[in-house]
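Appendix B. One record, verbatim.
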Amino acid sequence: MSAEQEPSGTRRGRPRDPQLRAQVLTAASRQLENAGYTAMTMEGILADTGIAKRTLYRWWPSKAAVVAEAILEGFVSVPENRIAHTEDVWEDLRNWLESVAVSVRGSYGEVLRAATAIGATDAALGESLTNAFARPARADVIARLQAAAKRGQVSPGADLDAVVDLLMAIIVYIGVSRDDAARIPGALGVIRLGIEP
């Protein structure tokens, strides 16, 4: 299909062509992985798919919208990284942080950086990404900390939401800065000093 061709039945308000939609989201996913969010462009997606420019912009008004939909619809691989529930909450947290750090040093790092950039420029899309990925991860870690509090490993008065904020901040910092994760044990040690009974 040439750049000037447009699929039938794509007037404003009508459903998007599923095949062309999948082509665009696949192209966005590929460009996100290969070039990164900052370098990818709507023009690159147009060149990769041959979709008409007016159609692309009618379906997605921005690069952020295309990438967010690709992430949310499963065209981009997002690791689950659930936290373990063993006898040692601190070992579980360390292993979880290190596992996520490995993920963000790979292709998932670009997903995290894209989600961070999208959230900074489009509050609604950022909220959708948060609801899909950050909130479930937070709930998983809070459940682990609550279990630890019941076992006497975490102070019953600890502000678990604040603890999870700090843990998530470590992940975002590693993902955005591409920094080494060697400081994870030290950072976790500081948190432990604050909430251990």
